[in-house]
Model the fold of this input.
Amino acid sequence: MKVTELEKCIDLYGKDIFAFCRQLTYSRQEAEELYQDTFLKAMELLHKIRVEENPKSYLLSITLRLCKNSKRKYARRRQIAGIESLVEEDQGIEDQGCSLEEEVVARERAKEVRDAVRELAEKYRMPVYLYYMEELTMPEIARVLKIPKGTVKSRLYQARKILRERLEVE
Done:
């Protein structure tokens, strides 16, 4: 891949990558850092990215790997000195011409779903994000997470089951 092709990828997939960063970090500032680090790492690995294949899934795998490394570093630092992270909650429902009551209910329901997904174990949460948010296919998710396709299917099934149980209205 050439630099100009990477620039096209940034134009095409930049918003999706940033949204994925937000889901991973829950913080705008950390997401911006992760987003920048992703494309800096992509510049380093430019020779490995294949335009013919799905460059978006490759970029998502870089993002995921950097995030995991960052979490490991954070965990080590927290063991040494107790550091608290700030969680930013400014994701909202776009104005869809709904009444105020409908909008409030929709926001609350969306928050419940986001919270339920965040509470999932990471092995379930990542496939859910990649499948529903990034709209990757199961083989692409398998490539990003470096797990078999059957495992992706199984984890999505289990995640849906867990979410259904948590979100059922009594």
Confidence is low (pLDDT under 50) at residues 82-96.
